[in-house]
Amino acid sequence: MCRMLTFSVLVAVMLLSACQDKTPEATRQVQIASQQLVPGDSELAAIYQRSCRSCHTIAATGAPLSGDSVAWAPRMQRGMPAMIDSVINGAGGMPPLGMCMDCSEEQFEALIRFMAGG
Ligand code: HEC
C-alpha cells in the first residue's frame, strides 16, 4: 500500500515536471547559446552589448533570449510595430527604451530582428 502511494506521488511529480515548458538543462543550453551571439554590424553590436544583452541573455530576467526563436515567435506574431512600442514604452521587467536612450526606431527594429533570430 505504502509502495503504491510512493509510486503515485512519483508519477504525479513526473507529470508536473513534464508540464513545464523547458527543463532547467534546456534553459541553460538556450542561455549559453544566446551569450555567443553578437550582431554582425559593429555599431549595432556596441549598442547591443551595453543594453539589450544584459537581460536578453539571462533567462532569470524573464526576457526572451537572443536566438531563442521559440520564445520570440508568439511575440513576433504581434508584429514589428508592437515590438518596437514595447521597447519604447517598456514591458514587464524591461525599462522604457530597453536601456538604450539614444537608439532610433530603425536600430530597435534591427536589434529585435537579430534577437528574434532573423
Ligand atoms: C533590464 C532588462 C532588459 C533590457 C536592458 C532589455 N530588455 Fe527587452 N525585455 C526584457 C524583459 C524582462 C522582457 C519580457 C517582458 C514581458 O513580456 O514580460 C523583454 C521583452 C522584450 C521584447 C518583447 C516585448 C513584447 O511585448 O513581447 C522586445 C521586442 C525587447 N524586449 C527588445 C529589447 C531591445 C531591442 C533591447 C535593447 C535596446 C532590450 N529589449 C533591452 C528585459 C530587458
From TrEMBL:
Residues 1-18 form the signal peptide. It comes from the Bacteria. Residues 43-115 form the Cytochrome c domain. The keyword Chaperone does not apply. Keywords: Electron transport, Heme, Iron, Metal-binding, Signal, Transport. The keyword Transmembrane does not apply. InterPro entries: Cyt_c-like_dom, Cyt_c-like_dom_sf, Cyt_CIE. PANTHER family: CYTOCHROME C5 (PTHR40942:SF4), PTHR40942. This is Cytochrome c5 family protein.
